[in-house]
Amino acid sequence: MEDDSGPQKNSLGESPKQASVPPPRRRIPLWTLLIVGVLVAAGAYGAYVYLTPRPHCTGTNSIVVDTYDSFMGSGSNPNATRAAVFQGFENATHSCVTVNYLTQDVANVIQSEPSSQLPDIALGLNEVTAEALGLEGYLLPYTPPGLSEVNSTLVNELSPEHYASPYEWQYLGLDYMTSVDNRTAHAVSTGDVFDTLLQNKTLAQSFLYENPTTDPVGKEFLLWEYQFYTSVLHQNWTSFWKSTQNVLPPAVSDWSTGIGEFGPSGYPLFVSFGTDPAYYATFPSNFSMNTTFSHYGGKQYAWKSIYGAAIVKGGIHNQALDEEFLNWLLSPGVQSEIPLNEWMYPANSSVPIPSVFAANPSVTGVIPLNGYTSPRAIAGNLTGLLEEWQSVA
User: Selecting from 3.30.70.1170, 3.40.50.300, 3.40.190.10, 3.90.1150.10, what CATH number does the domain 30-168+307-354 have?
Assistant: First the structure.
């Protein structure tokens, strides 16, 4: 962590340090970190990491894909999984694919890239960024045939105008160590996340979340809190932040850093994902954990995180091939790789869910907070919301 977001002592009186447990979903493999270091040291543009550089991928029978650094990288064999996705597409279409694994948020890179360096495909936009990029003119609307297997609600919660197509989803959750939940008479797992923190200063001091100005998950968490307060509790959303000023530890700059500090030697509470228990069940850690949502009035509420892929207007080499790739992402073969490599639910509703996902809290009956707003409203309100958060947090 940087000095301005350094850890404080947790509820156990210990100074947090990086846990030895491998973080779920968005792990960054060691070889990736080494490549990033070489690129930065050499003065190259540090946003890019290439799994397999392919200088021969030029011309009309090629596409360029920008994605996050650990796409399909959190399973037991990342190289084989990535090959199944990208080389599988090449084999099926007799094409060539260049993959840029970004160390920055995909949406931010698309907005800042020179037009000559824009990719064909932006893979990893979410319900916060897809609509905004579409409205700003960066994306080409497209409706893949594979969307017939995707719940229309998921499509509408990502981008009703089809600027991006969803390929995976899950709910944000509050990861917690079960020992902490037990010591607080299960206040963490059964109560409202925000009220629990307000009522227990010690817990609040042990709660880590991502900075919404620097991290996509942080933005989603801010929207979770905002929508829960305004639409469910009918209260001023800023009251939570004002009441926890100088109590919450500084927000961590990104999810990957934060998950590395979740655990007995770090923070026992962390904003992450509702499928983390399945990951920890597959790759056991040295502590017991679970995750939970917001509870109020006998109901559960959560923010739905949706990831999608889109065609970037300025980067098109072959539009027909771009469209084929978006549909390829929704095919049963690719979708079946998502649960145990991305640790999310596949968008294709016909794909079976692995049995280890039974370790996750049930999403049946969870009320998505996204239903109280729309992607267009989020795109229009986010800048103002971030500015106000910075003034009260």
Answer: 3.40.190.10
Question: Per DSSP, what are the bridge partners of residue 351?
Answer: none
Residue 370 · residue 226 · CB < 8 Å: no
Distance CA 315, CA 2 (A): 35
Other beta carbons less than 10 A from residue 92's beta carbon: 12
Task: Name the helix (H) or strand (E) containing 272.
Answer: strand 269-273
Element (H, E) at 124: strand 121-126
Q: Which residues share a beta bridge with 294?
A: 301
Fold of 171-304+379-392: D-Maltodextrin-Binding Protein; domain 2 (3.40.190)
* Structure tokens that stand for 92 in this block: 């099926």
In this structure, the number of other CB atoms found within 10 A of the CB of residue 43 comes to 7
CA gap 299, 309 in Å, rounded = 32
Calpha distance 221→227 (Å, rounded): 10
Distance CA 354, CA 135 (A): 37
Phi then psi for residue 241, to 5 deg, are: -70, -40
| 29-33, 151-155, 351-355: the lowest-pLDDT one | 29-33
Token output for 385: 């919301």
379 DSSP assignment: H
Instruction: Quickly tell me which residue has 């084999």 as its tokens.
Output: 91
Q: Find the helix packing angle between 216-227 and 375-392, rounded to 10°.
A: 90
pTM: 0.85
Identify the H or E element spanning 166: strand 165-177
| Closest listed residue to residue 109, CA positions, set 315, 292, 260, 264 | 315
State in Å, rounded, how far the first CA of the chain is from the last one. 19
pLDDT, tens digit, for every residue of 2-36? 333 332 323 222 222 233 334 334 433 322 332 33
